[in-house]
Write a structure and sequence with these properties.
InterPro entries: CARKD, Nnr, Ribokinase-like, YjeF_N_dom, YjeF_N_dom_sf
Catalytic activity: (6R)-NADPHX = (6S)-NADPHX; (6S)-NADHX + ADP = AMP + phosphate + NADH + H(+); (6S)-NADPHX + ADP = AMP + phosphate + NADPH + H(+); (6R)-NADHX = (6S)-NADHX
CATH topology of the largest domain: UDP-N-acetylmuramoyl-L-alanine:D-glutamate ligase
Helix content: 40-55%
Number of strands: 19
Family: Belongs to the NnrE/AIBP family.
Bound molecules: ligand NPW, adenosine-5'-diphosphate, potassium ion
CATH class of the largest domain: Alpha Beta
Mean pLDDT: 92
Keywords: ATP-binding, Isomerase, Lyase, Metal-binding, Multifunctional enzyme, NAD, NADP, Nucleotide-binding, Potassium
GO molecular function, one term: ADP-dependent NAD(P)H-hydrate dehydratase activity
Strand order of the largest sheet: 8-1-10-19-18-17-16-15-14-11-12-13
Length: 532
């Protein structure tokens, strides 16, 4: 599990560690790690450190201090290091070290900064780290914007300046780094969008903080974690023990969502899928997935007897394509009255947003909204949710008493009193109609197999993202493994090399990926499971 923390948690841990060490030890550890990563990058792009150009953007705090010391180490190895001192002050020891090593410094001047950035092989963003707050003030904001035109690689020191380290919020100009070298522990804002997409690939430098860290705020399961949680059939298994999932989805008007949700469940390994709906979706599901056992619901039945014909299930998926009228409401009421875990998605979420009494139940509930659906559930504008995803997914879990999986560029899973789980797989090609329906089926299958809502949702998101990447790469597992992942990994191979992440972590929709249809994602689930 990759764990991540807020700035306050990091500061508390640092204070405890610093009390045991001579002054300056942590900064020198951080700077040494940073310089080593930069030296490797320079060797990659220039063949050697000697003679390369390095630009330092230096703020007035310790983030600037790290940057100056790292610059000094690179200058000692023959790099031509020039610093823009953007603050009213600069870290004294760091500045002295850089000058003593032959580095050059100067105050902020837009033309000079632009010139430096055009020449540098590597630019270090040391404007602001965990001490940052709110939108960047001038001249930091201008410098952050100028980094977009840098010719070389942009390396963020600890955190990309302009990104809130605790939440990933970005309130104004912010550095978009190819690589972030972070110290001591991952900051939550590096894993959650929009911060995550500013951070690029993230490399952790150990400064000995580990024993002082509290419980994390955020955790990103690795492929090994997911593999350890996924159910596997044993010799004693039969279809009932593996888990029967009920799917109440689709309507005469919306039929595709039902086919996709059932596909997700079948391919994710449900022991059996029982599908209950109107006549037309039942006909289509039977045609595409003959494995599913289907029931045509009689809308004139009472809520108590509506699902009687369906048979026993261990978990329900409710909502994709269900519609939002009185008949759909009756189905939602019947499903949510059951004593088994229920996943509510799509139209089911609209029904629940209008009638929160549906959520008063004893068995676990998993809600899988995208930002628009969460906006309806919480009564908060969608943009606010997109800007502060971590805060809102936590709030939803607490307020609605459910496990909440918030979909989007970084999928988050929240449950009260647990770290928010961040998904690391996926590709922007997933942003196409119907892929969420597939996710609902995968999650339902895992719930039926007995995983908790929290584990089912986070494992399903991981498998779904992995399947999408395999599908986007043409369904060839071997080819996908040979290629590197997101833009940063492709260039620096800086991923953590964990199972799945090296070749299949979050993609950027570029290199070697092509558009996918939702059914392709369902079909690629077995290939994804084989990799875990
Ligand atoms: N603690 C440790 O043990 C270790 C810490 N380490 C390092 O220290 C970093 C934290 O250092 P820190 O606490 O000095 O804060 P930092 O991130 O440099 O920011 C403060 C500066 O930013 C400025 N500033 C703030 N907001 C701003 C805005 N919106 N717009 C513009 N300016 C803004 C603020 O300006 P001021 O408010 O003072 O005018 C001040 O100058 C941490 O990220 C890591 O890199 C490592 O060495 C490992 C050991
Ligand atoms: N920019 C993006 N990058 C990666 N994944 C995305 C992005 N946008 C959406 N997704 C994923 O695509 C899926 C879309 O689901 P959803 O919004 O429910 O669509 P639908 O209702 O059409 O099925 C979710 O799994 C979501 O996390
Ligand atoms: K920074």
């Amino acid at each position: 599990m990759r764990t991540a923390y807020t700035s306050d948690q990091i500061r508390t841990a640092e204070t405890a560690l610093m009390a045991r060490l001579p002054e300056g030890t942590l900064m020198s550890r951080a700077a040494a790690g940073l310089a080593m990563v930069c030296a490797n990058l320079l060797k990659g792009v220039r063949g050697r450190v000697y003679g390369s150009h390095v630009a330092l953007l230096v703020g007035g705090g310790d983030n600037g201090g790290d940057t100056l010391y790292a610059g000094a180490l690179l200058a000692r190895r023959g790099a031509r290091v020039e610093a823009v001192l953007a603050g009213s002050r600069a870290h004294e020891g760091g500045l002295a070290a850089l000058l003593a090593a032959g580095g050059r410094t100067g105050p902020f001047d837009a033309a000079r900064a632009g010139d430096l950035l055009a020449r540098a092989d590597v630019v270090l963003d040391g404007l602001v780290g965990i001490g940052g707050g709110g939108a960047l003030r001038e001249p930091y904001g201008t410098l952050a914007e100028l980094t977009a035109e840098a010719a070389g690689l942009v390396v963020a020191v600890d955190v990309p300046s302009g990104v809130d380290a605790s939440s990933g919020r970005v309130e104004g100009p912010a550095v978009r780094a190819h690589l972030t070298v972070t110290f001591g522990a991952y900051k939550a804002g590096l894993l959650v969008d929009p911060g995550a997409s500013h951070a690029g690939s993230v490399e952790l430098v150990d400064i000995g903080l580990g024993p002082h860290l509290p419980d994390p705020e955020v955790a990103a399961p690795t492929g090994d974690d997911v593999a350890g949680l996924l159910p596997r059939p044993g010799a004693e298994s039969d279809k009932y023990r593996r888990g029967v999932v009920g799917i109440a989805a689709g309507s005469d008007r919306y039929t595709g969502a039902a086919v996709l949700s059932v596909g997700g469940a079948v391919r994710a390994g449900a022991g059996m899928v029982r599908f209950a709906s109107a006549a037309e979706p039942v006909r289509l599901v039977r045609a595409r997935w003959p494995e599913a056992v289907t029931t045509v619901l009689d809308p004139s039945s009472s809520p108590e007897s509506l699902l009687e014909e369906v048979g026993r299930v261990q978990a329900w998926v409710l909502g994709p394509g269900l519609g939002t009228g009185p008949e759909a409401h009756a189905v939602a009421r019947a499903v949510l009255s059951s004593d088994v875990p229920v996943l509510v998605d799509a139209d089911g979420l609209t029904l629940v947003a209008k009638d929160r009494t549906l959520l008063r139940r004893a068995a676990p509930t998993v809600l899988t909204p995208h930002a628009g659906e969460l906006s309806r559930l919480l009564g908060v504008p969608r943009e606010q949710i997109e800007a502060a995803r971590l805060d809102h997914v936590r709030r939803a879990a607490a307020e609605l008493g459910a496990t909440v999986l918030l979909k989007g560029s970084t999928t988050l899973v929240a449950e009260e009193h647990r770290p928010v789980r961040v998904n690391t797989t996926g590709t922007p090609w997933l942003a196409t109609g119907g892929t969420g329906d597939v996710l609902s089926g995968i999650t339902g299958a895992l719930l039926a197999a007995g995983l908790s809502g929290y584990d089912a949702a986070s494992c399903a998101a991981y498998v779904h993202g992995l399947a999408a990447r395999i599908a986007a790469r043409g369904g060839d597992g071997g080819g996908a493994r040979a290629e590197a992942g997101g833009r940063a990994e492709a260039r620096y191979e800086a991923g953590d090399g964990g199972r799945g992440e090296a070749g299949y972590g979050a993609g950027d929709g570029g290199c070697g990926e092509a558009p996918i249809a939702a059914l392709d994602v369902a079909e690629a689930i077995p290939a994804a499971l084989r990799m875990l």
